[in-house]
Write a structure and sequence with these properties.
The longest helix has 34 residues. The mean pLDDT is 90. The strands form three sheets. A seven-stranded mixed sheet has the order 6-5-4-7-8-12-9, sandwiched between helices. A three-stranded antiparallel sheet has the order 1-3-2. The chain is built from 18 helices and twelve strands. The chain is of the alpha/beta class. Helix 3 packs across helix 4 and helix 10 packs parallel to helix 14. The chain binds S-adenosylmethionine.
Length: 372
């Protein structure tokens, strides 16, 4: 019985109130699954391990909803969890150190009467969107084998491959020597143990010599880059062959083609405004453009993935793994989801989109750019 700890004892050891522990139990986050001989609830060894992880994520500033996704991730074992946590803690330490350096630099500059530029002031913060939303990513985002096969085929005979904006490592071919580049610490920390080595950098400035790789690939990431043209130019500089999976963000190619953006979330249009058209991206790297149809049962939960399973968009965990929902803001999201829920219940969605139900794959503007 020695390894079973009462709620009171756990509160004492962790400095967390009994009330908070009860709350975690009520919301299903950490349940004391054992009983003391006197019949009181107690934490068994596995409960303690889970609680420790929850409290560590709390200390790192994660929301309870995000923590639930992290600790329930079936794809990661105990060792993998510790590695992920360690990566996040190290990153927090590095960021704090970088901020201290930046503050010292500014203090020094001010002492010398020099004003730092607004840009310099902001680089100190260096926030990444995926540092905020990335922990929800693995819940629904995984390799879709049919699309992966297209990407790997396009890589041709490349032995060494650079994966830019690599995220958690989906779509990395296992039979080649891969190097990953990913600016978000949260995404890097979620890469599985044994995944390809990952460098913290952005596409716009790749820390590699010219022509260091046989091929460079970028999957579902170009639309996040501050400067997509500069990033693609960098890919071309460091690799002989370039393969990019992206989407045609034009009005006709995407916004009007997909019922979700057309009928429920027109705000998505404001996110793509001013972005270089897919033809311009292809031109920059001298690529051919190939359409990629989305299978109706797509394994990777990207934005368009559930075109024939509309109920999926009502699920919070599906939306949280796709940045568009965060970027349009909570009001647009609430309205879109409520509208879709009503239309599914009334049969209006089915009426409007009847022709989709007969399709096994849909053309929704996804494109593979291949430059050889
Ligand atoms: C939708 S995720 C795709 C991740 C991965 N390629 C996949 O398919 O699972 C987009 C990724 O782009 C990364 N990203 C954002 N800005 C970037 C930049 N400037 N350069 C490279 N990657 C960037 C994000 O951190 C995020 O991991």
């Amino acid at each position: 019985m020695a390894e079973h700890l009462t709620v009171g004892r756990v509160a004492e050891l962790t400095g967390v109130s009994v009330r908070t522990l009860h709350h975690y139990d009520e919301i299903g986050l950490v349940h004391p699954s054992a009983r003391t001989p006197a019949g009181y609830r107690a934490y068994a060894a596995a409960d303690v391990e889970r609680l420790r992880e929850v409290l560590a994520y709390r200390r790192l500033g994660f929301a309870l909803r995000e923590i639930a996704d992290l600790v329930d991730d079936p794809a990661v074992d105990a060792i993998g969890r510790l590695h992920r946590l360690r990566g996040l803690v190290l990153d927090r330490r590095d960021r704090a150190a970088a901020m201290v350096t930046a503050i010292d630099r500014e203090l020094q500059a001010r002492a010398m009467g020099i004003e730092t530029t607004p840009e310099e002031k902001l680089t100190m913060i260096g926030a990444q969107l995926y540092d905020t939303i990335g922990s929800a990513y693995p819940a629904t985002r995984r390799t879709e084998p049919r699309i992966a096969a297209r990407v790997w085929d396009a890589l041709g005979d490349a032995r060494t491959v650079l994966n830019v904006g690599a995220g958690t490592g989906n779509y990395e071919p296992v039979d080649r020597e891969v190097t990953a580049v990913e600016p978000s610490a949260v995404m890097r920390a979620q890469r599985p143990v044994g995944a390809a080595p990952c460098v913290a950098a952005g596409a716009e400035r790749l820390p590699f010599e010219d022509q260091s790789f046989d091929a460079a690939m970028a999957f579902s990431t170009v639309h996040h880059w501050h400067d997509p043209i500069a990033g693609l130019r960098e890919m071309r500089r460091v690799a002989r062959r370039v393969v990019v999976f992206t989407h045609d963000a034009s009005e006709a190619g995407w916004l009007r083609r997909f019922w979700l953006t057309r009928d429920y979330l027109p705000e998505a249009g404001t996110l793509v405004r001013g972005r270089p058209p897919v033809e311009r991206l292809a031109e920059e790297i001298g690529a051919r453009i190939e359409p990629v149809l989305i299978p109706w049962d797509c394994a990777d939960g990207f934005f368009e993935a559930y075109w024939r399973q509309p109920e999926a968009y009502l699920e919070e965990r599906v939306r949280r793994a796709v940045s568009i929902w965060t970027r349009v803001g909570p009001e647009a999201e609430r309205r879109a989801v409520a509208g879709l829920r009503d239309d599914l219940a009334s049969g209006r969605w089915a009426e409007r989109n009847r022709e989709l139900l007969a399709l096994d794959a849909a053309e929704l503007g996804l494109r593979l750019l291949v430059a050889t």
